[in-house]
C-alpha cells in the first residue's frame, strides 16, 4: 500500500569521483544493468547510514574492497523522472589513486564487472546522459566552486556563474572500453558468461528502496542582521504546546517540484511574497532513527537552505501569514534566534549565515554541524 504522503518521498544515493595521477576518472561496469552498464562507483543510501558521506564510503568498501579517503562533496543533483521516484544524488571527491592501489581492488563481482580509467571526454561519452552531465559538471567546474547545485544534471544557482553550457557529448556507452582497459571485459558478443541477471525486475527493485524526505527553507535578514523566523501553529508542533520557531519554508513535493521551486512556493504560501531563492547556503542531512536512535524522525531528512537576502521595511510590512500554518513572525538577533530555535536548527542557520560571507557552494552539514 502506498502512503498518502509518498509524493513527498525521494531516493538518495552517493557516488565517488576517483581521479588518478593522469587526471583520468574511474568508471565501473555494472553487470546487472544491460542498458546502461557504465557508472561511477557508489550506490543507494541505506537507513543505517548516518549521512550520504557514509553511504559513499560503505558502497566503495562493498564494491571495491577498500575504504576510500573522501574529500569534499562535489555536487548534489536532484533529478525528476517519470519512471521512478526522484533522487538526490551526491558525488564526492576522493584522493587520487595510485596504480598500486587500483591493482589491489577486490571487487564484488555481482556489483562490479570491470573498471576503466577514462579521460573527462571519454567519461562524458561512456556514462549515460544524466550521469554524464553530473560528472562532467564536477570535472569542468573549479574545485573551489563546490559543492555544485544541479537539477537533472544542469547547473543552477551559483554554478551558473562558473560553468557555461558546453556541447552535449554523443552517448556511446561501453563501446571501445575493453580496448582501453584490460579490466573491462569484451561485450561485442553479448554479456560475459559470468554475469548474473538482476535478482528483481526494475519496478520491484525500485519499490523496495528506502526513501528520505526533504525540506526547503529560506534565510531572510534585515539591514541590522536580524533573522526572520516564523512560529508554527500548536497542532504542528513536535513538542506539544511549546512555541516552535523555524525559518520560512517546508516540505518539498518531491514527485513534482525541485527544491528551488519548493522554496519559492513555500515563501509565497507562508509570507505572501513572490521572490526567487538566492544562493544555496547549506545542505543539512538529518539522520533517521535507524542511524540515530535519538532522532525525532523515522527516516532521514535533507534540508536545503537558500539565501533570501536582505529585506527592507516595505517588504516586511507586506507579510501575510498563512493562517492555517503560522501564528506570528519575528526578526531576531543571532542570540535571540539561538534561544528560539532547536539546537540543530540554530546550528544550520548559523552555518548558512556564515556561508553568505564566503564564495563557493553550500556548507555540507549533518545534524546541523559540519560533515566529515
From TrEMBL:
SUPFAM superfamilies: Nudix (SSF55811)
One Pfam family it belongs to: NUDIX
Spans through the membrane: none
Keywords: Hydrolase, Magnesium
Cofactor(s) the record lists: Mg(2+)
CDD domains: NUDIX_Hydrolase
Gene Ontology molecular function: any one: hydrolase activity
UniProt domain Nudix hydrolase: residue ranges: 9-141, 210-354
Domain of life: Bacteria
Listed name of the protein: NUDIX hydrolase
Organism from which the protein derives: Kitasatospora purpeofusca
Amino acid at each position: 500500500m502506498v502512503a498518502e504522503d509518498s509524493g513527498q518521498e525521494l531516493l538518495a544515493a552517493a557516488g565517488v569521483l576517483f581521479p588518478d595521477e593522469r587526471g583520468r576518472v574511474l568508471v565501473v561496469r555494472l553487470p546487472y544493468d544491460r542498458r546502461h552498464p557504465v557508472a561511477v562507483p557508489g550506490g543507494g543510501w541505506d537507513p543505517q547510514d548516518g549521512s550520504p558521506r557514509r553511504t559513499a564510503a560503505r558502497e566503495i568498501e562493498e564494491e571495491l574492497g577498500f575504504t576510500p579517503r573522501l574529500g569534499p562533496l562535489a555536487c548534489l543533483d536532484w533529478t525528476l523522472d517519470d519512471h521512478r521516484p526522484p533522487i538526490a544524488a551526491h558525488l564526492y571527491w576522493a584522493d587520487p589513486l595510485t596504480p598500486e592501489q587500483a591493482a589491489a581492488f577486490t571487487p564484488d563481482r555481482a556489483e562490479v564487472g570491470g573498471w576503466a580509467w577514462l579521460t573527462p571526454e571519454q567519461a562524458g561519452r561512456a556514462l549515460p546522459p544524466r550521469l554524464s552531465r553530473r560528472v562532467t559538471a564536477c570535472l569542468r567546474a573549479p574545485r573551489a566552486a563546490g559543492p555544485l547545485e544541479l537539477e537533472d544534471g544542469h547547473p543552477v544557482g551559483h554554478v551558473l556563474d562558473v560553468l557555461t553550457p558546453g556541447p552535449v557529448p554523443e552517448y556511446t556507452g561501453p563501446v571501445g572500453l575493453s580496448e582501453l582497459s584490460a579490466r573491462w571485459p569484451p561485450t561485442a558478443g553479448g554479456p560475459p558468461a559470468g554475469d548474473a541477471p538482476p535478482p528483481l525486475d526494475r519496478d520491484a527493485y525500485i519499490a523496495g528502496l528506502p526513501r528520505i524526505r526533504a525540506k526547503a527553507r529560506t534565510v531572510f535578514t534585515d539591514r541590522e542582521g536580524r533573522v526572520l523566523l516564523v512560529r508554527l501553529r500548536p497542532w504542528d508542533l513536535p513538542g506539544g504546546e511549546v512555541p516552535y520557531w523555524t525559518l520560512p519554508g517546508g516540505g518539498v513535493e518531491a514527485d513534482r517540484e525541485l527544491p528551488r521551486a519548493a522554496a519559492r512556493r513555500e515563501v509565497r504560501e507562508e509570507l505572501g511574497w513572490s521572490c526567487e531563492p538566492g544562493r544555496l547556503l547549506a545542505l543539512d542531512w538529518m539522520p533517521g532513527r535507524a542511524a540515530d536512535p535519538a532522532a525525532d524522525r523515522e527516516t532521514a531528512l535533507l534540508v536545503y537552505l537558500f539565501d533570501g537576502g536582505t529585506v527592507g521595511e516595505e517588504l516586511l510590512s507586506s507579510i501575510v501569514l498563512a493562517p492555517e500554518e503560522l501564528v506570528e513572525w519575528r526578526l531576531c538577533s543571532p542570540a535571540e534566534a539561538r534561544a528560539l530555535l532547536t539546537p540543530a536548527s540554530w546550528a544550520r542557520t548559523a552555518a548558512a549565515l556564515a556561508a553568505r560571507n564566503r564564495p563557493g557552494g553550500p556548507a555540507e552539514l549533518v545534524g546541523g554541524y559540519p560533515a566529515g
